[in-house]
Amino acid sequence: MAHDSKQYREELVAVRGVSFGYTASPVLTDISLTVDRGEYVGIVGPNGSGKSTLLRLLLGLHEPDSGSVDLLGQPARAFAEREKVGYVAQDVTENTKRMPITVAEVVLMGRFPHAGFGRVTSDDRERAHEALETVGIHHLADRKITQLSGGQRQRAYIARALAGEAELLVLDEPTVGVDAESVDAFFDLLGDLNDDGMTVLLVEHDIGAVIEHTSRVVCLNRELYFDGDPVTFAESDALDRAFGTNVRRDDEVVVS
């Protein structure tokens, strides 16, 4: 069931008229959308549609060719308070295979921006422990991050974001390589966090899960095809049109 948490009108993300391409071929064309505090937004679209590129623009990792991207009221490229945005990358499972540190140490990293003079206090450790409890893996605190399953590692990185007092959680295909049972529990966790006020922005290949769990769906394939509630999205032809653009001529595509 979707979580209706849109209780506020404070924009955490504002994308206005953004176009971007890595070469002469555009990846995103004239994209505009905002994400308000408390929302749970799922982004869907075919492979190569620009979903992950959009996240990188939001995080200030790329400069748009045209248009603007603001993050928590600041230009994304100049945004300095990185701890306020928890980012869980698609390849986090692969990237952690060579990290010989414990789960507790990974989560404690989220406290570093708050640690005075670089010193981690007992309060910092307590917040890290609370974050581990929130995501349900406090019993794995002393285990090496390399020993965790894919789903457990995702939870560890969400805990790191919570420990850092993130206001926005951004996830790029977080369920890739995670077993079905863990996926269900993972979406339950995201729903609970959203119910508690966390703003969630999720790129996800499982369209059914996005329809079931999020409160808003954004569908894109280079251009924006849909931005609205999951029920309306499920009843629309936006998905068919977005996935069909790879085989149709551009001038035959009607963009909503």
Description:
β9 and β10 form a beta hairpin. The radius of gyration is 18 Å and the shape is globular. It has a single domain, classed as P-loop containing nucleotide triphosphate hydrolases (Rossmann fold), CATH 3.40.50. The chain is 32% helix and 23% strand. It has 256 residues and is of the alpha/beta class. It is an enzyme of class 7 (translocase). InterPro entries: AAA+_ATPase, ABC_transporter-like_ATP-bd, Metal_Ion_Import_ABC, P-loop_NTPase. Belongs to the ABC transporter superfamily. GO terms for molecular function: ABC-type vitamin B12 transporter activity; ATP binding; ATP hydrolysis activity.
Order of helices and strands: EEEHEEEHHHHEHEHEEHH
Q: Largest sheet at a glance?
A: 6 strands, mixed
| Count of β-strands | 10
| Uncertain regions spanning at least 5 consecutive residues | 3-8, 245-256
CATH topology (level 3) name: Rossmann fold
Q: How many helical elements? A: 9
Shape: globular
Strand order of the largest sheet: 6-7-8-3-9-10
